[in-house]
Backbone:
């Protein structure tokens, strides 16, 4: 499976994904970090997540994702209690809930890059399967 | 705010929620652990989550939630890497992804009951706000 990856993403993630047979084509992406067809995945460490909450980047990123893609995911690696900075724990949880309820974004909080890479792989495989099924249905309809 | 809570839920959660001004009315719930109007929340520890994956309970619970409620959440407390039993880490991640992508269930993985109680509070407050807005809109339409 070949996907687009933002060229500012780490080589570690590219390697992890490569070992799982997800090949990343690095290019500058305007929105998200990993893109395949109408699926967009934003990857964040817990510290990035908190920092982008504070400077307002998170909200604008998420709004762009919603506008441009059909299926949107935010995958966060790290622990809420392990965050740096002095952001209140309740604020982090409040923001997670806000993304999920208000923006209807799907979030998974994972522990490290390996778990996160595996989650990306499974998300993309699920969508590939759904896409193939839709294509097959389309074919049937056209064949009738 | 007064919500229904399954009477098999722990007193710890009831107390945590009570301190956050979410009053729980314990009764036997067929589906979910916390219910308010069309919002259903299932709470699981990471070990429950894994055990209910193995015995197939998780899938049937989720299917019932989808059938009976409009807004569904699964909140898991604990670490994937801290799970007991010999379930493979990738299986747990695969199941989380399956719930999110295939079943369109919203999941949050949190660290402990306090974080989880706060997430419940914020989810319910968001829905209460959305509900009030809808009511207001309905009122306007009827008033015209």
Residues:
């Amino acid at each position: 499976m070949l996907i687009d990856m933002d060229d500012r993403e780490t080589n570690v993630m590219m390697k992890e994904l490569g070992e799982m047979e997800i090949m990343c084509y690095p290019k500058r992406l305007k929105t998200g970090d990993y893109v395949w067809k109408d699926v967009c995945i934003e990857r964040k460490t817990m510290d990035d997540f908190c920092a982008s909450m504070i400077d307002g980047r998170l909200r604008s990123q998420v709004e762009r994702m919603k506008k441009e893609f059909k299926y949107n995911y935010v995958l966060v690696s790290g622990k809420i209690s392990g965050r740096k900075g002095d952001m209140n724990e309740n604020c982090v949880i409040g923001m997670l809930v806000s993304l999920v309820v208000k923006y209807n974004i799907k979030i998974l909080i994972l522990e490290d890059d390996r778990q996160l890479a595996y989650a990306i792989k499974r998300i993309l495989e699920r969508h590939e399967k759904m896409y193939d099924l839709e294509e097959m249905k389309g074919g049937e309809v056209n064949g009738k």
Remarks:
- The longest helix of chain A spans residues 113-143.
- The mean pLDDT of chain A is 92.
